[in-house]
Amino acid sequence: MDVVIAIINWNTRDDLALCLRSIYEGNTPPPTFLPVVVDNASADGSADMVAEQFPQAVVVRNRENRGFAAANNQVLKASHSRYVFLLNPDTQVHPGALRELTQFMDAHPDVGICGPLVLNPDGSVQYSARRFPTPLAGAFRNTFLGRLFPNNRYTRDYLLSDWDHRSERDVDWLSGAAMMIRREVIDQIGLLDEQFFMYSEDVDYCYRAGEAGWRVTFFPGACITHARAHSSDQAQIRMLVQFHRSMYRFWRKHYAPRSSWPMRLLAPAGIVARAGLLLAKNLLDRARGRLGR
User: Fold this and answer.
1) Is the peptide bond before 262 cis (omega within 30 degrees of 0)?
2) Residue 230: per-residue pLDDT
3) What's the burial of 124, exposed, middle or buried (CB within 10 Å: 0-12/13-18/19+)?
4) Cα distance between residue 160 and residue 146, in whole Å
5) In the prediction, which pLDDT does 291 show?
6) Average pLDDT per block of 10 residues along the chain, 293 residues long
7) SS3 19
8) For residue 228, what pLDDT is reported?
């Protein structure tokens, strides 16, 4: 088997059906591929749909929501393919994308992780290839500071938004929404860190791969469309909390050991403050919405 496609699903039945259909209709061997859907205790019949409509795929039914990293690790541990392609269920794979990604990685054995061009549903570029996060990027990204200064250089640098994303480029990290991993990388650095229930596990994995000497490369010769956040939209408050917990864990794991003592105090306080402000905004928007009905 060339590629095992790991799709972690939680209550996105309709998106998942479109994703699987795009894989089978637009990608014929070579390479040989096998979609493995890990269903995290969905209540919408997702697993039954896969079994009925896509019997050639493998479906794993978890009794509880194990999170993104742990569910992907179920696939990483059980598979023996040359590559594992992490793919969100709210994506659609463009024709030939699996072939192009596989051929690119075959031709570049020093590339350990590769990601395709990711588009929004309207055809615009989704910034799936980024620099590692910094405190200033966190302060401006999706916050009131970012709304006051939408063209600030900290967000632009983090998202690499001044680059047109139409050329191959080594980057710091790639979104786990569509990320192909070489088997040798898995053998060398291990599995995803399950302490990240959701969010930042992709940042962490790319960081570890880079530390081990592997290239992390964006390759626009393959393309997918990503609807984005359809699972997390179902539980926005909980996902905001998980996002900031993961942000803190990434900082503590990789940045804190080489940070000054003042920064070791300021960074966690900033993450907590950011989380509090975004949670307050979310709750206020909900209250306004109820009053407006």
Assistant:
1) no
2) 53
3) exposed
4) 16
5) 59
6) 97 97 94 97 97 98 96 98 98 98 98 98 97 90 85 95 96 98 98 95 98 98 86 69 94 93 91 90 77 57
7) helix
8) 73
Domain locations in the chain? Answer: 3-127+165-227, 236-292
What is the structure's pLDDT at 286?
76
What is the residue-wise DSSP string for 214-272?
-EEEEEEEEEEEE---TTGGGGHHHHHHHHHHHHHHHIIIIIGGGS-HHHHHHHHHHHH
Residue that has been written with the tokens 């942000």 in this structure: 247
**Domain 3-127+165-227 homologous superfamily, CATH:** Spore Coat Polysaccharide Biosynthesis Protein SpsA; Chain A (3.90.550.10)
Query: Regarding beta strands 83-87 and 129-130, do their DSSP bridges make them parallel or antiparallel, or are they unpaired?
Result: unpaired
The Cα–Cα gap between 152 and 146 comes to 7
Instruction: Dump the DSSP string for 39-104.
Output: EES-SSSHHHHHHHH-TTSEEEEESS---HHHHHHHHHHH---SEEEEE-TTEEEPTTHHHHHHHH
CA-based Rg of the chain, rounded to a whole angstrom? Answer: 19
Q: How much is the pLDDT for 156? A: 96
Query: Contact at 8 Å (CB) between 99 and 27?
Result: yes
Supply angle C-alpha 292, 44, 92, rounded to 5. 90
Cα distance between residue 128 and residue 176, in whole Å = 9
Q: How far is CA 253 from the centre of its chain?
A: 19
In the chain, what is the straight-line distance between the N-terminal and C-terminal CA atoms, in Å?
53
